Amino acid sequence: MSQLVDSFGRKITYFRVSITDRCNYRCIYCQPEKEFEFIPHEEILRYEEIVEIIEEAVNLGVTKVRITGGEPLVRKGVVNFIKKLREIKKLEDISLTTNGFFLSEYAEKLKEAGLNRVNISLDSLQEEKYKKITRGGSLEKALKGIDSALKAGLLPIKINTVLIRGINDDEVEDFVRLALERPLNIRFIEFMPSGEEVINEFEDKFISVQEIKEKLIKKYLLNSIKISTANGPAKYYQIKGGRGTIGFITALSQHFCKTCNRIRLTSEGKLRPCLFSNKEIDIKKAIRDLVRDKKSEGFLRKKIIRDKIIEAVMLKPKGHKLNIKNQENLSFHMSRIGG
Ligand code: SAM
To answer: How far, in Å, CA of 194 to CA of 188, rounded?
Structure first.
């Protein structure tokens, strides 16, 4: 039973943890093109610190953890880190979000370490366009990564496709075909206002998933279904005759704040109760101050971590007011916070 209930009665059971702000890609909707200042290494949470925080979150009732970044597979020691997480008894589900570049190398090892499943970002099925969106990425490597994840049994595999008008919305049916042919859950995600290049023309580039859905309904028979690991914001549909599913995430056009069950831990050690609010709780400082004061023994240390988690949960706003026209005071890069 989760002890993490926020001021609006929502039970918090899901932690999203960014283990690095570094990424081998610089997707146009995620990072600025100009040199990006990375967080210095010593300011990034150490694996032991992350494990400690997750342990206490699980003691408070968290059952699901997603590892993200930046690109989580660029951080050394990630397999061992997953092994440590697997040792946390009441943690039911460990998943990871990746761009897939290193997945052919890591899929088996991650599965063995105890990772349950992966989400893979894939915004185009055309090599040149993929390269342009990711600023230099390799579609071939991402597709190989998907094959390896299937082979390793990191299931169900969810594919994250951020739709941007005029850039990849012409490929929606190609993605639908992919879901017809392969056992993949393709999720069309509404583009959110982050990343300087596209944000300047946000209204023109934004495309609601409702618009996409209406087009698809005319052509395909979509049956609404529930998938076992999906109690998040996506709505899934099986296409008649298909092996996979398609899903829609309406981050902007229809808020899913009412059912939000998550908080985030950023790579620099801040608990972030809501992606769209800049309010954060500095849990790293609390832990490191304890070490300096030598008051870090057992019970007190655990209690301080738990108190910080509870403080962050109580800070969770009722909802965000963001929409296509209103992107008030928002400054975030997903690579830093963890998407
Ligand atoms: N590097 C990994 C990857 O590529 O999946 C994990 C980090 S990435 C920030 C996590 C997810 O955030 C990706 O699926 C990405 O598509 C999504 N994302 C980043 N910026 C976004 C934006 N502006 N709008 C919608 N989704 C975004």
So the answer is: 17
Longest dimension (CA), the chain: 65
Closest of 69, 329, 72, 334 to residue 191, by C-alpha: 334
The set of protein residues with a Cβ atom below 6 angstroms from ligand 1 is 23, 29-30, 68-69, 71, 97-99, 121, 160, 162, 189, 191-192, 194-195, 334-335, 339
Q: Give the pLDDT confidence score for residue 339 in this predicted structure.
A: 65
User: What are the per-10-residue average pLDDT scores of the chain (339 residues)?
Assistant: 88 97 92 82 97 97 97 98 98 98 98 98 98 97 98 97 95 97 95 65 85 92 77 81 92 81 96 91 93 68 95 92 58 63
Whole-number pLDDT of residue 328? 54
For residues 177 and 181, what is the distance between their CA atoms, to the nearest angstrom?
6
Give the predicted TM-score (pTM) of the model.
0.93
> Which residue has the CA at smallest separation from atom 25 of ligand 1?
191
Give the closest residue to 336 by CA, choosing from 251, 274, 288, 269: 269
Within its chain, how far is the Cα of 217 from the centroid?
A: 28
